Amino acid sequence: MFTAMLSGLLMLREAQGDVDPSMAVEKCLVACRHFVLAVSVASADVEEAVV
To answer: In three state form, how does the secondary structure of 7-51 look?
Structure first.
């Protein structure tokens, strides 16, 4: 979860410095995927997954 969150934040940081708006948008979309993964992992019920 923390790795996905960190990856998303790093992608946003890279997008911040981009001069080309289309590349910045692409990096923001990649960051969104990382955040969705982090939320999915954080909200997973561990007890149900083990059973």
So the answer is: HHHHHHHHHHCCCCHHHHHHHHHHHHHHHHHHHHHHHCCHHHHHC
pTM over 0.90: no
Separation of alpha carbons 17 and 32, rounded Å: 17
Place of tokens 């948008």: 25
Where is 4: in which H helix or E strand?
helix 2-16
Diameter of the chain measured on Cα atoms: 49
Structure confidence by residue, pLDDT tens digits, 1-51: 789 999 999 999 999 999 999 999 999 999 999 999 999 988 886 666 555
Distance, in Å, from the CA atom of 44 to the CA atom of 22, rounded to the nearest integer, reads 33
